[in-house]
Structures are given as structure tokens and as C-alpha cells.
TrEMBL record:
The keyword Signal applies. It holds the Pfam family DUF4142. InterPro entries: DUF4142, Ferritin-like. Residues 26-68 are annotated as: Disordered. Residues 52-65 have a biased composition (Low complexity). Residues 70-202 form the DUF4142 domain. This is Membrane protein. Residues 1-18 form the signal peptide. Residues 26-51 have a biased composition (Polar residues).
Length: 210
């Protein structure tokens, strides 16, 4: 009897020990399934994307909002001046009596229309809004010229073309040397020879008017 009881106790002890080991292994297995550290690492990886996105937005490119005062002043004056040259050139083609003056007007329309388009392309590229009409002073010059006919028109028009182009050349040279925005400076510099040619032709036409 004693041996039977001892045998039963040993078997019971062995069963209890195996059950304890099984519980410990299950618990360990469950704990290894927890992936919180990996998840948090993934979150940290995602969060590092934000700084690179935000820094890519800053290109350092000049825009219409950070142009220098010189650039804005020049662009506005060049836009208004170009509009006036085209409008007065059209007047010359109808109101002038001298062939040289008519030819001068046609050249002004062609060359200044091209320059105006280039200036508009620049403004679009940098996001700057150019004037689309004449200021009060240029509007008065246009209205006064429009009222003239024949020789009176020829004299008035050629006088204006000489004086205006002298002023334009000075302004374009100033922008080419003192401007801040590279593409606008380049536009001003390459347009100077055209303006100098206009001045020369204007002086010739003025001399041809009797």
C-alpha cells in the first residue's frame, strides 16, 4: 500500500510539473507575439518624411512678391512705355503725312509688341502683375497726339519718339546694371540696342519732316 501511494504521489508531481512548464511556454510564446516596438519604429520612420517634404518647398526662386523696388519700378515703366509706343505707332500709320514717319510708326508697333510679349512672359514666370494700361501722363500724351493731323502730327510724333527713347535707354541701362532679378536684367540689357536703333531712326524721321 505504501508503495502504491508513493507511486501515485510521484505521478501527480510529474503531471503538475509538466503543466507548469506548458503554461510558462505558452506565456512566453504569447509575449513574443507582441509587436509594439516594431509598430512604434514604423511610426517614427513615417514621421521623418515630414521635414524633407517641407524643405523641398523652398526653392529660393525670385517671385513677384520679393522683387526689388528697382525691378518693380522698371517693369511697370517698361510695360506702360511699351503699350504707349504700340498705340502711338498705330496712330502714325494713319495720321502721319510723311512716309518716313509712317515707316517709323510701323517699326515701333512691330518691335515694341515683341518686347511687350517678352516682358509679359517674364512676369508670368515670376508671378508679377504688370500694368495693362497707360498712366495719366502717358494717356494725355496719347490723346494730344491723336488730335493732330498731317505735318503737325509728324512733328509731334517724332519729337515724342526722340525724347521718350532717350529716357527709355537710360532706364533700361539702369536696370541692366542695378536690377536684382537676373532674367529681367537680361531682358533690359538685350533691348537697349533696339531702343538705340529706334532713337536713331526717330531722329532721321524728325529731320525728314518739313
Amino acid at each position: 500500500m505504501k508503495n502504491s501511494i508513493l507511486s501515485l504521489l510521484v505521478v501527480a508531481a510529474l503531471v503538475a510539473c509538466k503543466k507548469s512548464e506548458t503554461t510558462t511556454m505558452d506565456t512566453a510564446g504569447d509575449s513574443t507575439a507582441i509587436t509594439t516596438p516594431n509598430d512604434s519604429a514604423a511610426l517614427n520612420t513615417d514621421s521623418t518624411v515630414m521635414p524633407s517634404d517641407s524643405t523641398s518647398a523652398g526653392t529660393g526662386k525670385t517671385t513677384g512678391t520679393n522683387l526689388s523696388t528697382q525691378d518693380k519700378k522698371f517693369a511697370d515703366a517698361a510695360a506702360r512705355g511699351g503699350i504707349m509706343e504700340v498705340q502711338m505707332g498705330h496712330l502714325a500709320s494713319t495720321n502721319a503725312s510723311n512716309a518716313a514717319v509712317k515707316s517709323l510708326g510701323a517699326m515701333m508697333v512691330k518691335d515694341h509688341s515683341k518686347a511687350n510679349d517678352e516682358l509679359k512672359q517674364w512676369a508670368s514666370a515670376v508671378g508679377y502683375t504688370l500694368p495693362t494700361g497707360l498712366d495719366a501722363d502717358k494717356q494725355k500724351k496719347y490723346d494730344d497726339l491723336k488730335a493732330k493731323k498731317g505735318v503737325d502730327f509728324d512733328r509731334a510724333y517724332t519729337d515724342l519718339m526722340v525724347s521718350d527713347h532717350k529716357k527709355d535707354i537710360a532706364e533700361f541701362k539702369e536696370e541692366a546694371s542695378k536690377g536684382s532679378e537676373a532674367s529681367l536684367k537680361a531682358f533690359a540689357g538685350k533691348t537697349v540696342p533696339t531702343l538705340e536703333h529706334h532713337l536713331m531712326e526717330s531722329e532721321k524721321a524728325k529731320s525728314a519732316v518739313k
